[in-house]
Each structure stands twice: as structure tokens, then as C-alpha cells.
Amino acid sequence: MAVCRHGGWGCALALLVTIGPALAAAPLPTVAEHMERARLAEQKLDYDVAAELWSALVARRDLTPEQRFEANLNAGRVHRILGRDTEARMNFLYVLRQQPGYRLPPSMPPKVVDFFELVRQEVLATEVSGTGSRSGKAPVQPKSPTAAAPAADTTTATASPAGRATTTVATSTAPAAAPATGAPTTATLSWPLLIGGGAVAAAGIAALALGGVSAVQFATSEQRALATDEQVERDAIYDERDTWAWAADIGFASGALLAIGGATLLAVGLFWSGE
């Protein structure tokens, strides 16, 4: 790295001006470009990338109702393919609440169609439950597409002296369905980003402080060099001053990089934590 013999502050400022635009965050792609990237990832069978792209698209605030519907539908399909049932359920709930009669095309994988219909039963059961609570009727429970074998029913009856049945008891047993498990959500993953971003930003602030201290030492050395009449001593002080100039340049440059990187991580973590 070249050292400015008479301008450490100028070198630091010039370096910041040069790298500043390159470190600026790139603008978000348009909604159409975002969707196209997600579709290309699916065509390449890169479902992890496709899931991230569709989920990020769902979180955008500049979608039309039709685009948000499509984004949730595709995100739910990809999440179901990856076995992330919690995320798929949330996406399909949005789809069915917007269009309760929507049906997946027959070309869709059976595991996706069956799960979609299971979520539909859940939505219907919720609606019936609300109606039943107002009318006094018991709600209807949804059935899983992979139902277990029919449970055995046992019925007993007792007869009155007149020969009429007076008591009937029915019992049934059925295995409980295992709860669906899904991958960690973006809200859970936001904490490592927040912690890491804070640490990186703190390191950047420390580097900037070091650059400031070095700049002060540079100015002090400059004054000492001008105050002496001995050429040998002046040359030695100039060498010391150049070292401080180099340290100031490094401190300001690395501090700016670390501070911007930490701020970026914190921004992403805060965005994910709000989902």
C-alpha cells in the first residue's frame, strides 16, 4: 500500500470515497425478475434456493394481490417437496383463505396435493367450528389423507323391563397423528445474524477509533518534525509520522468495511426477525 508522506488524512478520505459506492447495497430486483429467478431455480431442481427466493418474495411489500397469491402457492409447493410442512401449511392457508375453492392441477406431485387438501380440511373445520359454536353443534374434525385403519367400535345396550333399549355406550380407539415438523423459520435464523452483525459492527467501530488515534499521532509527529532544526532527528520523526499515516489509513479503511458489513447483517437480521 502506498504511503502519503504529507497527507495521511487525505489518503484515508480518498480511500473511503473510492470504496463507498462499491460497498453500497445493490437495489432489490423487480418482482418479475425475482419470480423469474425462483422459477429458474426450480427448473434446475435447486429447491433450497427456490424456497428461499419464493419466501423472500412473499415478504415483499410491493406485490399485487395476484403476485402474492402466486408466490404463496409456489412457496408452499416447494416447502412441501422439501418436507418443510410448517412453512408449507402457512403458505397454503393464505392461498385457501384467498380462494377457498382453489384446486391444484393433477400434474402436481401427490404428496403436495394430499397435503394441500389436508390444509383445506383444516380451513373447513375452522369455519364449521365457528358456526358450530354459535349454533350449539359439535365441530367436524378434518381427516388426514393418510388415515389409519378404521378403529374398532364397541357398543353395549341394556334393556328395560318393557324390552326397550335404554342405554348405549360406544367407544373407539385410534392412533394419534404425529405433529408435523418443519425447518427453522427466518425469525429463528435472524438471531445469529443480529449477534454476528453486532460483533462485526463493534469491530469496525474499534478499527475506526484506532484510525483516529493514529491520525492524532500523525499530526503530533508533523508538528514535532517542524519544530526541530536537526535534519537527522527530523528524518526520524518523518519516518515515525509515515508509520502513523499508514496505521490511520488501515484503521479507517478496515473500520469502514467492518462497519458497513455489520450494519448489513443487522439490517437483514432485523428484517427476518419481523417476519
How would you describe the overall organization of this protein?
The protein is mostly helical. The protein folds into 2 domains: 105 residues, Serine Threonine Protein Phosphatase 5, Tetratricopeptide repeat (Alpha Horseshoe), CATH 1.25.40; 90 residues. Helices cover 67% and strands 5% of the residues. The protein contains 8 helices and 2 strands, in the order ααααααββαα. Strands 1-2 form a two-stranded antiparallel sheet. Helix 1 runs parallel beside helix 8, helix 4 packs antiparallel against helix 5 and helix 7 packs antiparallel against helix 8. It is rod-shaped and about 95 Å long. About 11% of the residues have low confidence.
The class by helix and strand makeup works out as mainly alpha
What fraction, in percent, of the residue positions are helical?
Answer: 55-70%
Number of separate domains:
2
Helix-strand string: HHHHHHEEHH
Strand order, largest beta sheet? 1-2
CATH topology of the largest domain: Serine Threonine Protein Phosphatase 5, Tetratricopeptide repeat
Shape: rod-shaped
User: With helices defined by DSSP (H or I, 4 residues minimum), what is the helix count?
Assistant: 8
Q: How far apart are the first and last residues' alpha carbons, in Å? A: 44 Å
Overall mean pLDDT: 75
Q: Catalogue the unreliable spans.
A: 144-172
Strand content: 5-15%
Mind summarizing the main beta sheet?
A: 2 strands, antiparallel
Rg: 33 Å
CATH architecture of the largest domain: Alpha Horseshoe
